[in-house]
Amino acid sequence: MLSTSARLLHLLSLLQSQRDWTGSALAARLEVSTRTLRTDIGRLRSLGYPVEGVPGVAGGYRLGGGAALPPLLLDDDEALAVAIGLRTATGGVAGFEGTALSALVKLEQTLPARLRHRLEDLVAATVALRTESSDVPVERLTAIADAVRCRESVRFGYEDSDGTATLRTAEPHRLVHTRGRWYLAAWDVAHRAWRTFRVDRMQLRTPNGPRFVARDEPEGDLIGFVERAVGTATWQVRARAHVQAPAARIIARVPPAVVVEEVDATTCIAHVGSDSCDQLALWLGLLDADFTVDGPAELGPALRRVASRYTRAADAASPGGSASA
């Protein structure tokens, strides 16, 4: 039989592994009587672990939430996952670097040598690419997350990309972190439409608004909706390309931000955009299909410039030689 200390650690590990346990199942796993189990449960409670009783015919136990966070028992893979997460957890959250670093130091000090070596190998073999980011106070993120959980509307001041400030009320659905920024996917109450809001541009008002009934995800695809909204937000030029190719073929060639509508089995319409007409003209050529386009007047001359450049390069090309545009 395990010693009392070892048995308590094993009991704690079992309670952390699933939500509810019957008393008989716990006693069987520990190879003790139900009386000894009750004694061990009392010991855990005296140490500050909030072990709750589960009502029912058989009775049972669960590890509840407490006023203080008790020590957690992690297996090797769980400990490694937490360490990796802490090393990458600071992106886009203001003031989180010190907190994450402090937690990481505490964890790494307790890692056995075999895990420290695995973590060091992983860190040495990986590189994090730098991305433009806008930091958000952790308090703002947690307040929004709480509103999502409670299904409470949020009221906030919002500054658009052009600097226009407005007061908004929205039903928060999900927080999304992408491209170094935090976004809130929410139902805009005034506009009666789904919107994405940059969290760094939000100034929350208190208290929250009324509760709401959860809606179906926008377009049935939350991730796709956010990708399209974020991807098109910076477009300075927009156009509709009528493409002589099946929609499935074009969808495979374009980023998620581009909406492709099927016309028939051999043609489709792609809603495209870019920072300038010249960039859009170059990008349209990557569709690798014939097309016509509805767009700003400047797009036609941009297409001609691209066509002329490639025509000159083609005319100057010779077998085995070089071509210059």
Automatic annotation (TrEMBL):
Start and end residues of each HTH deoR-type domain: 4-69
Domain of life: Bacteria
InterPro entries per UniProt: CBASS_pafABC_assoc_protein, DeoR_HTH, HTH_11, WH-like_DNA-bd_sf, WH_DNA-bd_sf, WYL_dom
Keyword annotations: Transcription, Transcription regulation
GO molecular function, one term: DNA-binding transcription factor activity
Name assigned to this protein: WYL domain-containing protein
